[in-house]
Design a protein that fits this description.
- About 45% of the residues lie in helices and about 15% in strands.
- By secondary structure, it is of the alpha/beta class.
- It has one domain: 3-Layer(aba) Sandwich (Rossmann fold), CATH 3.40.50.
- The protein has a seven-stranded parallel beta sheet, sandwiched between helices.
């Protein structure tokens, strides 16, 4: 195997939901650096514009709220018509809720499940309808360390991320016949504006979290992006149904 070619994504088109900020932007940057053409999906056009300008290269974007599930078939058809076939779908867009379960409303729980799980199911189904015809494709879900073990105050979020892993496993059994691979990444504590805002003024909490991470540091969006490149490339051509923790060993500390 030519290693350089195996990790190349040249000639492939990747759709990344929530691809304009945080982990999604890190994934977009890494896939673009590996040669992929990018289509970023997100709710805020200004954010997508800024990300596309920063990423450069063959990067397009479409403002869209993936919670509008009825419109997702048309969205996928539009991407195929305007930009070309989708080779890679990264289900990154999501919502977070940190709240004790006793204080979480039904509406809040439903919103997290719709955003993190149901929308991912719908857009994946629509993409695979096209991938099936070509006999090739890659689906990548972004789960979470909360999908691997229990954490307090994230009942809705943790449930959605655990369910993503179950959905991935079911899809592996169906989509492997089409040569469509389905994998997931489970990020740990990853540096972001939200994380920094929450912890920069709480030194004690920050140190407590870092001390629970065997690697003794937070990860970056680029760390997730590098893992995504591997799972989306031919280097992982025989890898499907994997949940890859990218967490500095945090999963082993619980």
């Amino acid at each position: 195997m030519d290693t350089n070619k195996a990790f190349s994504l040249a000639g492939r088109r990747a759709v990344i939901t929530g691809g304009g900020t945080g982990i999604g932007l890190g994934i977009s940057r890494a896939l673009g650096d590996a040669g992929a053409s990018l289509v970023l999906i997100g709710r805020r056009e200004s954010v997508l514009q800024k990300a596309a300008a920063e990423l450069g290269g063959d990067c397009r974007y479409i403002p869209y709220d993936i919670n509008d599930r009825k419109g997702l078939p048309d969205l996928i058809n539009r991407i195929g018509t305007e930009f070309g076939p989708i080779d890679i779908l990264v289900n990154n867009a999501g919502a977070h809720l940190k709240k004790p379960s006793l204080e979480t409303t039904d509406e809040e729980f439903d919103h997290i499940i719709r955003t993190n799980l149901l929308s991912g199911f719908t857009i994946t189904r629509e993409c695979v309808k096209h991938m099936e015809q070509r006999g090739a494709g890659v689906i990548l879900f972004i789960s979470s360390m909360t999908g691997l073990f229990g954490m307090d105050k994230v009942a809705a979020y943790g449930t959605s991320k655990t369910a993503i892993i179950g959905l991935m496993r079911a899809m592996v059994m169906e989509y492997s016949a089409f040569r469509v691979r389905v994998n997931a990444i489970a990020p740990g504590w990853i540096e972001s504006d939200m994380l920094n805002e929450a912890l920069n003024n709480d030194k004690e909490r920050k140190e407590k979290i870092i001390n629970r991470i065997p690697y003794r540091s937070f990860g970056t969006g680029e760390d997730i992006g590098a893992a995504a490149v591997y799972l989306c490339s031919d280097a992982a051509r025989y890898v499907t149904g994997v949940v890859l923790p990218v967490d500095g060993g945090a999963a082993y500390s619980f």
